Give the backbone structure.
Amino acid sequence: MNTTWRDDALCREVDTELFMPEVGGSTAEAKRVCMACEVRRHCLEYAIDAQEPYGVWGGVGQQELRRLIRARRAEQEAA
Ligand code: SF4
């Protein structure tokens, strides 16, 4: 899996704890950073493929990421 996109990740420049909030904690600030990140699509694709179990990836939190992972799995099963 190519992860060279991480070199350009905007979250490298901010407090990474923003991206791993406590259960029930706000993800708003992390998502705001993601929206300005030029590798957001690569990051989201990676998180879906890797089924990342924690944190904010590609501008989405865990609830949305779980939904995208299920949708990807359904697509693959239908193919
Ligand atoms: S989209 Fe967000 S989590 Fe992903 S690399 Fe960019 S800033 Fe980091």
The helical segments are 28-35, 40-50, 62-78.
